[in-house]
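My current task is to audit a protein record that another person submitted. What it holds is a sequence and that sequence's fold in token form. Thanks in advance; the entry in question is below.
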Amino acid sequence: MKRTIALVAVLVVVAIGVGIGLHVWSGPGLHGVESRASAAGPVAVAPLRVAAAAPVRKTLRRESIQPGQIEAFEITPLFAKLPSYVQKLNVDIGDRVDPKQPLVELFLTELKDEIRQ
């Protein structure tokens, strides 16, 4: 008895699933949409008018401004030949630098002591 009830329940679930599947996957002809459209006759659609402009020759500029910064691939530490202090900083971050332009002026304490003697 329990086996029969289980079999009937499975068959009902399968039948419902098949019915839903046919409803979802079937084309519009099965729902009667085509028959209603063809019964009304051909549908008149008004033509769409589009105005076109005359071509003009000009230079196209493609420009994109994005925020960012450039970082070095390698970092090389700089060392002074003599122990000293920075007296004057000649350039700042973002300044253009010439190849022979001095970046800083150094103050040598040992050299000042030697000059006094």
